[in-house]
Amino acid sequence: MGYHICFIQGDWLNPTVWEKFERHFKACGYTCSVLSLPDTGEQGWYRVLHGKNGRSSPLKRLVDFYAKQITAFPAPSILIGHAMGGLVVQLLLDRGLGVAGIAIAPRPPQRVYPGILSLLQTITARVERLDGMRFLRMSPREFSRRVAYPGDQFATEQLYEKFVGRVPQNLMITAAMGVGGRLLFTQERGPLLLISADDDRMVASSVVLANYFYQRRSLAPTDYITFPGHGHLLITQPGWEHVADRIIEWLQQQLGWF
């Protein structure tokens, strides 16, 4: 049986952050798609988060948006997400969507403390008002200190220009508070791999480990891998190939050759 790998956009970073992973998985013979917002930038966020259901949380609307895309694929989907995308992967699996999920440096679900580093970034980020919404904007200095660490200054500047975008303030705050991020554990979900980076200054490895222990409430296979010497951008910085290959190895163990 063939599977469709779906890379899910996270917070702060544009979908282009998946370029290396997508190229690597395709070179290994896998069908891939990078799921992103309906439009680039602020307009895309506006269309997703201002739906007809005004009572639902921004995070739930975001998960609903990705769920519609995933269910439209003819082949069963393998879900891979980074940061907020990693939280979305967990929530989609909890709904019974996806045959397997990989959450890389994921923001945690409700009932798992997100950690002081993540909360500080959300609270201290610069606020900009655009298209009737409040967005958070990360400065180059914050990006270098928190997201791109460890990395040299020249490479960090290039990554900032290429990858960094704005994120809605209400999405980041409500997700940090756990609103819309509750796992029900009522569906039989696929296997889940949680990945952390030892030097992550955005989502600490201790937060991902706590997330792993919480996810073990499910009877489905749940695994945890940490990568020493890596930071939050372990999907694109030097050594990313090792991360991608470990994911492929884990998927083959769970699903066989796909």
Q: Can you characterise this structure?
A:
α1 packs across α10 (about 240-255) and α5 packs antiparallel against α8. By secondary structure, this protein is an alpha/beta fold. It has a six-stranded parallel sheet, with helices on both faces. A three-stranded antiparallel sheet has the order 5-6-7. The protein has one domain (about 5-255): Rossmann fold (3-Layer(aba) Sandwich), CATH 3.40.50. The longest helix has 16 residues, at about 240-255. The chain starts with a strand and ends with a helix. The protein contains ten helices and nine strands. Keywords: Hydrolase. GO terms for molecular function: hydrolase activity. InterPro entries: AB_hydrolase_1 (IPR000073), AB_hydrolase_fold (IPR029058). This is Alpha/beta fold hydrolase.
What characteristics describe this protein?
single chain, 258 residues, alpha/beta, Rossmann fold, six-stranded parallel β-sheet, three-stranded antiparallel β-sheet, 10 helices, 9 strands, 41% helix, 17% strand, globular, hydrolase, AB_hydrolase_1
